[in-house]
Amino acid sequence: MKCHRYFIISLLVLILFLVGSKAWFGGGEKVLLSEVSAITLYDGRKTTGRRSSPVPQLNCIGGSAYSASKPSVVQCKNVGSDGFDVQWECKADMDDSYRFGKLQVTCEGYDHPNDVYILKGSCGLEYTLDYTEAGKSRQNQGGYTGYNQQHNNNYHSKHSSDSSSWFIFFIIILTIGILLCKVSQSNTEDTNVPPRHSNFRDSQSSNTNSP
Fold it and tell me: What is the pLDDT of residues 161-184, one digit of tens each?
Protein backbone atom coordinates (compact mmCIF):
# COMPACT_ATOMS: atom_id res chain seq x y z
CA MET A 1 0.00 0.00 0.00
CA LYS A 2 2.83 2.40 0.82
CA CYS A 3 4.33 1.78 -2.62
CA HIS A 4 1.05 2.73 -4.30
CA ARG A 5 0.84 5.79 -2.08
CA TYR A 6 4.24 7.04 -3.28
CA PHE A 7 3.22 6.61 -6.91
CA ILE A 8 0.03 8.59 -6.31
CA ILE A 9 2.02 11.37 -4.62
CA SER A 10 4.46 11.46 -7.57
CA LEU A 11 1.59 11.73 -10.06
CA LEU A 12 -0.01 14.53 -8.04
CA VAL A 13 3.29 16.44 -8.05
CA LEU A 14 3.50 16.04 -11.84
CA ILE A 15 -0.09 17.26 -12.32
CA LEU A 16 0.51 20.28 -10.08
CA PHE A 17 3.64 21.09 -12.07
CA LEU A 18 1.79 20.92 -15.39
CA VAL A 19 -1.06 23.09 -14.11
CA GLY A 20 1.29 25.71 -12.70
CA SER A 21 3.89 25.56 -15.47
CA LYS A 22 3.15 29.06 -16.73
CA ALA A 23 3.84 30.58 -13.33
CA TRP A 24 6.90 28.38 -12.69
CA PHE A 25 8.52 29.19 -16.04
CA GLY A 26 7.72 32.88 -15.85
CA GLY A 27 5.41 32.79 -18.88
CA GLY A 28 7.30 34.92 -21.38
CA GLU A 29 5.81 37.40 -23.81
CA LYS A 30 3.09 36.02 -26.08
CA VAL A 31 2.87 37.38 -29.63
CA LEU A 32 0.76 36.53 -32.68
CA LEU A 33 3.07 35.08 -35.34
CA SER A 34 1.23 36.72 -38.24
CA GLU A 35 1.76 40.14 -36.64
CA VAL A 36 5.54 39.76 -36.33
CA SER A 37 6.78 42.19 -38.99
CA ALA A 38 10.47 41.25 -38.91
CA ILE A 39 13.05 39.18 -37.04
CA THR A 40 16.81 39.63 -36.74
CA LEU A 41 18.87 36.53 -36.01
CA TYR A 42 22.49 36.44 -34.85
CA ASP A 43 25.19 33.81 -35.09
CA GLY A 44 26.31 32.67 -31.64
CA ARG A 45 23.08 33.66 -29.89
CA LYS A 46 20.26 31.42 -28.73
CA THR A 47 16.51 31.64 -28.90
CA THR A 48 14.28 32.02 -25.86
CA GLY A 49 12.58 28.88 -24.56
CA ARG A 50 9.51 28.19 -22.45
CA ARG A 51 8.22 24.71 -23.27
CA SER A 52 11.48 23.61 -24.88
CA SER A 53 15.19 24.28 -24.55
CA PRO A 54 16.78 27.28 -26.33
CA VAL A 55 18.47 26.57 -29.67
CA PRO A 56 20.94 28.58 -31.81
CA GLN A 57 19.27 31.42 -33.70
CA LEU A 58 21.32 30.55 -36.79
CA ASN A 59 22.29 26.97 -37.52
CA CYS A 60 24.00 25.88 -40.75
CA ILE A 61 23.25 22.18 -41.24
CA GLY A 62 25.01 21.45 -44.53
CA GLY A 63 25.56 22.46 -48.14
CA SER A 64 28.55 22.60 -50.49
CA ALA A 65 29.85 25.73 -48.71
CA TYR A 66 29.23 24.38 -45.22
CA SER A 67 32.89 24.83 -44.22
CA ALA A 68 32.98 28.45 -45.41
CA SER A 69 32.42 31.50 -43.22
CA LYS A 70 28.82 31.85 -42.10
CA PRO A 71 26.74 35.03 -42.08
CA SER A 72 26.80 36.70 -38.68
CA VAL A 73 23.39 38.34 -39.06
CA VAL A 74 20.26 37.39 -41.00
CA GLN A 75 17.30 39.75 -41.21
CA CYS A 76 13.88 38.48 -42.23
CA LYS A 77 10.72 40.43 -43.03
CA ASN A 78 7.17 39.13 -42.96
CA VAL A 79 5.86 39.42 -46.53
CA GLY A 80 2.48 37.78 -45.97
CA SER A 81 1.02 34.30 -45.88
CA ASP A 82 0.41 31.54 -48.39
CA GLY A 83 -2.76 30.61 -46.53
CA PHE A 84 -0.96 28.15 -44.28
CA ASP A 85 2.32 29.68 -43.08
CA VAL A 86 3.94 33.07 -42.75
CA GLN A 87 6.28 33.86 -45.66
CA TRP A 88 9.55 35.64 -44.96
CA GLU A 89 12.04 37.55 -47.09
CA CYS A 90 15.52 37.17 -45.64
CA LYS A 91 18.70 39.13 -46.25
CA ALA A 92 22.26 38.36 -45.23
CA ASP A 93 25.50 40.22 -45.90
CA MET A 94 27.15 37.61 -48.15
CA ASP A 95 29.46 37.57 -51.16
CA ASP A 96 27.93 36.48 -54.47
CA SER A 97 29.97 33.28 -54.16
CA TYR A 98 27.40 31.90 -51.73
CA ARG A 99 23.69 31.32 -51.68
CA PHE A 100 21.22 29.85 -49.26
CA GLY A 101 19.99 26.37 -50.06
CA LYS A 102 17.29 24.88 -47.87
CA LEU A 103 15.82 27.19 -45.24
CA GLN A 104 13.61 26.39 -42.28
CA VAL A 105 12.56 28.79 -39.55
CA THR A 106 11.08 27.40 -36.35
CA CYS A 107 9.23 29.30 -33.64
CA GLU A 108 7.99 27.86 -30.37
CA GLY A 109 4.20 27.76 -30.13
CA TYR A 110 3.20 29.43 -26.88
CA ASP A 111 0.86 26.78 -25.45
CA HIS A 112 1.29 23.94 -27.96
CA PRO A 113 3.27 23.25 -31.16
CA ASN A 114 0.52 24.47 -33.54
CA ASP A 115 -0.42 27.58 -31.56
CA VAL A 116 -0.87 30.72 -33.70
CA TYR A 117 0.76 32.60 -30.83
CA ILE A 118 4.50 32.18 -30.29
CA LEU A 119 6.98 32.98 -27.56
CA LYS A 120 8.75 36.24 -28.35
CA GLY A 121 12.38 35.68 -29.34
CA SER A 122 11.91 31.94 -29.91
CA CYS A 123 12.41 31.92 -33.70
CA GLY A 124 15.52 30.35 -35.17
CA LEU A 125 16.74 29.52 -38.67
CA GLU A 126 18.23 26.29 -39.98
CA TYR A 127 19.81 26.58 -43.42
CA THR A 128 22.22 25.05 -45.89
CA LEU A 129 24.91 27.13 -47.58
CA ASP A 130 25.94 26.43 -51.19
CA TYR A 131 28.43 27.86 -53.67
CA THR A 132 27.09 29.80 -56.64
CA GLU A 133 28.64 29.31 -60.08
CA ALA A 134 30.88 32.30 -59.38
CA GLY A 135 31.88 30.76 -56.08
CA LYS A 136 32.72 27.43 -57.68
CA SER A 137 34.87 29.22 -60.25
CA ARG A 138 36.74 31.12 -57.55
CA GLN A 139 37.21 27.93 -55.57
CA ASN A 140 38.82 26.28 -58.60
CA GLN A 141 41.07 29.32 -59.05
CA GLY A 142 41.92 29.40 -55.36
CA GLY A 143 40.47 32.89 -55.00
CA TYR A 144 39.24 34.34 -51.71
CA THR A 145 35.57 35.01 -51.23
CA GLY A 146 34.09 37.10 -48.45
CA TYR A 147 30.82 38.64 -47.37
CA ASN A 148 29.97 42.00 -48.92
CA GLN A 149 26.63 41.67 -50.70
CA GLN A 150 23.10 40.98 -49.56
CA HIS A 151 21.61 37.62 -50.37
CA ASN A 152 17.84 37.23 -50.37
CA ASN A 153 15.68 34.20 -50.03
CA ASN A 154 12.20 33.29 -48.93
CA TYR A 155 11.14 30.68 -46.43
CA HIS A 156 8.11 29.82 -44.38
CA SER A 157 7.79 29.38 -40.66
CA LYS A 158 7.23 26.23 -38.70
CA HIS A 159 6.44 25.81 -35.04
CA SER A 160 8.82 23.91 -32.85
CA SER A 161 7.47 20.70 -31.29
CA ASP A 162 10.31 19.98 -28.91
CA SER A 163 8.88 18.46 -25.73
CA SER A 164 12.05 16.87 -24.37
CA SER A 165 11.98 18.98 -21.19
CA TRP A 166 8.54 17.59 -20.27
CA PHE A 167 9.67 14.03 -20.95
CA ILE A 168 12.78 14.47 -18.79
CA PHE A 169 10.72 15.90 -15.93
CA PHE A 170 8.27 12.98 -16.15
CA ILE A 171 11.17 10.48 -16.01
CA ILE A 172 12.58 12.26 -12.94
CA ILE A 173 9.23 12.12 -11.12
CA LEU A 174 8.78 8.45 -12.05
CA THR A 175 12.31 7.61 -10.85
CA ILE A 176 11.69 9.36 -7.52
CA GLY A 177 8.48 7.36 -7.08
CA ILE A 178 10.27 4.06 -7.77
CA LEU A 179 13.11 4.90 -5.34
CA LEU A 180 10.66 5.84 -2.58
CA CYS A 181 8.77 2.61 -3.22
CA LYS A 182 11.96 0.52 -2.91
CA VAL A 183 13.00 2.32 0.28
CA SER A 184 9.55 1.71 1.75
CA GLN A 185 9.68 -2.00 0.87
CA SER A 186 13.18 -2.31 2.34
CA ASN A 187 12.10 -0.71 5.62
CA THR A 188 9.06 -3.00 5.80
CA GLU A 189 11.23 -6.10 5.33
CA ASP A 190 13.64 -4.93 8.06
CA THR A 191 10.83 -4.48 10.59
CA ASN A 192 9.48 -7.98 9.86
CA VAL A 193 12.79 -9.79 10.52
CA PRO A 194 12.61 -11.58 13.93
CA PRO A 195 15.42 -10.84 16.43
CA ARG A 196 18.21 -13.41 16.45
CA HIS A 197 19.81 -15.27 19.43
CA SER A 198 16.95 -14.32 21.75
CA ASN A 199 16.87 -17.84 23.30
CA PHE A 200 20.61 -17.75 23.88
CA ARG A 201 20.38 -14.45 25.73
CA ASP A 202 17.48 -15.73 27.87
CA SER A 203 19.43 -18.84 28.87
CA GLN A 204 22.44 -16.72 29.80
CA SER A 205 20.27 -14.52 31.96
CA SER A 206 18.70 -17.50 33.78
CA ASN A 207 22.12 -19.09 34.42
CA THR A 208 23.40 -15.87 35.93
CA ASN A 209 20.48 -15.60 38.35
CA SER A 210 20.62 -19.26 39.49
CA PRO A 211 22.57 -20.08 42.79
Answer: 444 555 676 678 778 777 777 776
